[in-house]
Amino acid sequence: MDDPKEGERDAMEAAPLPFRAAVDALRAARLRPQIEIDPTKPPQRLAPFTYALEATVVDGDEDLADGRLVLLHDPAGHDAWQGSFRLVTLVRAELEAEMATDPLLPEVCWSWLTGALQARGLSYGEPSGTVTRAGSHYFGGLADRPANSQIEIRASWTPREGLGGVPDTASHLASWCDLLAQIAGLPPAAPGDASIVSLPQRRGPQSR
């Protein structure tokens, strides 16, 4: 059986130079210590070249939030993206039940994403996404579990390309980690993030 890691190396060596440079920048990025991040298997049908990361915000033994970030690249460009790169994300965390009923919650959560990008001065386009809130109540053999509410952000945006057609993926990753920290209820890591609105979060284990 072929070594999957060897297959990944072969695929990366065959990828265009801009994509390889963008991935190298993701791998070299230095992130805040509360965020544990690892590469994961990317989706195969969204673009000719893909790379994915998954992350968890950890406080001691508790998982405060988790998410996935996928880098897409189509050398021929993509009309809907208005570029040749696209970043796609899923971020989720648990909330205090009363916060889940706040009518402004979706707008605030969306502002966490756009605010994180703007706080680092990043240029991007064609943002789109959804904010979903859901509540769970337990019955029968699970009745001893407290009810919980979860917020989920699904989004995508086009990072503007710089020299050599390569976007600043390291800074976009840092902004994404700012979003993860924001939804987890952690204090901002940089002064520029202080303008983003925060809501109190439930700091408990995430449903996997």
UniProtKB/TrEMBL annotation:
The lineage of its organism: Bacteria, Bacillati, Actinomycetota, Actinomycetes, Kitasatosporales. InterPro entries: DUF3000. It comes from Streptomyces liliifuscus. This is DUF3000 domain-containing protein.
